[in-house]
Design goal:
This protein is of the alpha/beta class. The chain folds into 3 domains: about 150 residues, Nucleotidyltransferase, domain 5; about 110 residues, no CATH class; about 70 residues. The chain is about 55% helix and about 10% strand. α2 packs across α5, α4 packs antiparallel against α5 and α10 packs antiparallel against α11. It is elongated and about 90 Å long. The protein starts with 8 loop residues before the first helix and ends in an 8-residue tail after the last helix.
């Protein structure tokens, strides 16, 4: 957009000053939901208890001793009686949580005793990870039960995917989502992931880094930054003002009192804010395309690294489609040159192959992504 940078730093600064500010950047954040079962405290404790029972069976087999009593049939019956109740009361639910906590605590003590009797650590890497996870689940649920709250730091919501965290969004129908949160910058139809994290973070703190990334990509700062109100903090506004960038949002403070002298100015400012709001719509459409067309809202990768690669591959495919349309539009202007015609045909075939490959990997339930 703004030309390539020169190898010399002084020449780069002079060229940037000469070019000035060009283009606009639209920034927003969304959540890529993981394909996990909706977590409940009772369900997590029951799953942890069942895993602890399997670990006890394996350790008892290796030790050759007598299997300790776990009361698994009684615990399973109590769980089912409460899980089948559509609307359990608060007291009944707390009673069920207390029972499951007691069963799990007894099983964890049995596991510790069985491990001490063996000469070497008997658990495999997978079982060792599960053992570590259910210990943390017990500690978190025990703390929340006695403090009578539903919040704790780094709360585990999935045994198989302990890196997933609950992210409060506050949207209708999806107040809490479970997955990774991503900050995206949108420039001329191309969406780029600037920040991907598994903990809930304030996306407003990413604005300055996203603007600097824009400068490193295109060699100049944008003319305007389009974002919603959460990005319009005083620090961000002061930063954009210092860089000479306009923020496409509502100004802070009380609205200006309209008079005959400033009526036309206020009208133009209001029309400009409306135009900025309309120009922010494409990034929402990009999120909708990813979630409805490429299952960005149903990531089935189990490990953290594979899930991140899955998410980035979705944006890669969507960006390749945009580039394919651009080259297809250029084809009418380059039909006279056989070299360009050959180059575009090869590029378009590559785009189609990548699209089919991405769709096959992302949407097929029989294929597991491995990186």
């Amino acid at each position: 957009m703004c030309g390539n940078t020169a190898p010399n730093a002084n020449e780069t600064e002079s060229k940037t000053e000469a070019v000035g500010h060009k283009g606009k950047i639209v920034i927003d954040a969304t959540v890529a939901n993981q394909a996990i079962r909706y977590p409940t405290d009772l369900g997590l404790l029951n799953e942890s208890r069942e895993i602890s029972e399997k670990l006890i069976d394996e350790l008892a087999r290796q030790s050759g001793g007598k299997k300790p009593r776990t009361y698994r049939e009684q615990a399973r019956k109590r769980y089912l009686n409460l899980a089948k109740n559509k609307r359990p009361g608060k007291n009944l639910l707390r009673q069920g949580l207390r029972h499951q906590l007691q069963y799990l605590r007894r099983n964890l003590s049995h596991i510790d005793r069985l491990v001490d009797t063996l000469n070497q650590f008997p658990l495999s890497h997978r079982d060792q990870k599960l053992y570590w996870v259910i210990q943390h689940v017990y500690a978190q649920q025990f703390e929340m039960y006695h403090s009578q709250t539903n919040h704790c730091d780094d709360r585990i919501v999935s045994i198989s995917q302990p890196h997933v965290r609950p992210i409060v969004r506050g949207k209708a129908g999806h107040k809490v989502e479970f997955g990774s949160k991503i900050s995206v910058s949108f420039v001329d139809g191309i969406a780029m992931i600037d920040h991907l994290g598994w903990d809930a973070f304030n996306e407003g703190q990413d604005l300055q880094a996203q603007v600097e990334s824009y400068k490193s990509r295109y060699g100049c700062y944008p003319e305007v930054v389009l974002a919603d109100g959460i990005y319009g903090t005083r620090d961000n506004r002061n930063y954009l003002k210092e860089k000479g960038i306009r923020f496409g949002g509502k100004p802070l403070g009380r609205p200006r009192k309209q008079t005959e002298l400033n009526a036309e100015e206020i009208k133009k400012a209001k029309a400009q804010r409306r135009q900025d709001a309309l120009e922010r719509i494409p990034i929402e459409g990009k999120f909708g395309q990813g979630k409805n067309g490429y299952r960005l809202n149903y990531i089935r990768a189990r490990t953290m690294k594979t899930a991140e690669a899955w998410i980035r591959s979705i944006f890669l495919v969507m960006n390749l489609l945009i580039l394919g349309r651009i080259f297809h539009a250029l084809k009418r202007y380059t039909v006279k040159f056989s070299f360009w015609r050959f180059f575009q045909d090869q590029f378009l075939s590559l785009i189609l192959d990548l699209e089919l490959c991405g769709l096959k990997i992302i949407q097929s339930s029989r294929v597991r992504m491995t990186f």
